[in-house]
Amino acid sequence: MATRTPLMAGNWKMNLNHLEAIAHVQKLAFALTDKDYEAVEVAVLPPFTDLRSVQTLVDGDKLRIKYGAQDVSAHDSGAYTGEVSGPLLAKLNCTFITIGHSERRQYHGEDEPVVNAKVKAALKHGLTPIMCVGEELSVREAGNHVSHTLAQVDGGLEGVAAESVAGLVIAYEPVWAIGTGKVCGEEDAQEVCGAIRQRIEELYDDATAQQVRIQYGGSVKSGNVAKIMAQPDIDGALVGGASLDAEEFVKIIRFRDQ
Ligand SMILES: O=C(CO)COP(=O)(O)O
């Protein structure tokens, strides 16, 4: 079985201006040690307007924190007002891009074809997609959470080659657990994350399924992260609100100590 390095990523959403971003990344850098970076990969996903400042700080101090964006255009360049392309993000040395976050699906009408085009755009420019999937409360209550989430996986990865899938990240974020304080029970999270890995094996092969990293996201905090991370098919956390507090995010990164 492949050993997968856990990925602890902070999705800042629409929070922290570029000055706050610098201060926040400095706090993380000050607290984190080589031991932390050996145990987990750490990433922050700030708003677009912060990326240049974060890049300058990371490069200047040779920090081991990775960073990325919260969205990418499906297009490479041209007349797409307001969009930010893969080449522009690659030029800033971004590593990760969240794609198809439920807030993009909910407020910007992103569906599987859009997510699929953005996954391909990110991969084309050497950026690692964190493809977000997960069900709304009504879907879970109807007992359709697994099939719903797997349909998002199928649609998002259509036409993506096995070698690309092996390197990407899928984040299972049940919509009802995002920003609500209602964390999904670790066994419920494992049920869906295990089903996602199984689906990758069916769509590709066992080696690809063993390599792809699957994160859980939704009200992750230092108090619940250890139980979530103990699940066999959960390889990291995509953390929203709690990642805005540097001390708390460091505790989450050190989930083994909690
Ligand atoms: O949406 C999320 C991360 O992408 C989760 O947000 P919260 O951790 O604030 O629930």
From TrEMBL:
Residues that hold substrate according to the record: 11-13, 179, 219, 240-241
Organism per entry: Streptomyces tubbatahanensis
SUPFAM superfamilies: Triosephosphate isomerase (TIM) (SSF51351)
Quaternary state and interactors: Homodimer.
Pathways per UniProt: Carbohydrate degradation; glycolysis; D-glyceraldehyde 3-phosphate from glycerone phosphate: step 1/1; Carbohydrate biosynthesis; gluconeogenesis
EC number: 5.3.1.1
Protein name per its UniProtKB record: Triosephosphate isomerase
NCBIfam families: tim
This protein's UniProt keywords: Cytoplasm, Gluconeogenesis, Glycolysis, Isomerase
Main subcellular location: cytoplasm
Family: Belongs to the triosephosphate isomerase family.
Active site: 101, 173
Subcellular location as annotated: Cytoplasm
InterPro entries: Aldolase_TIM, TIM_sf, TrioseP_Isoase_bac/euk, Triosephosphate_isomerase, Triosephosphate_isomerase_AS
Any one GO MF annotation of this record: triose-phosphate isomerase activity
Known catalytic reactions: D-glyceraldehyde 3-phosphate = dihydroxyacetone phosphate
The protein's role, per its UniProt record: Involved in the gluconeogenesis. Catalyzes stereospecifically the conversion of dihydroxyacetone phosphate (DHAP) to D-glyceraldehyde-3-phosphate (G3P).
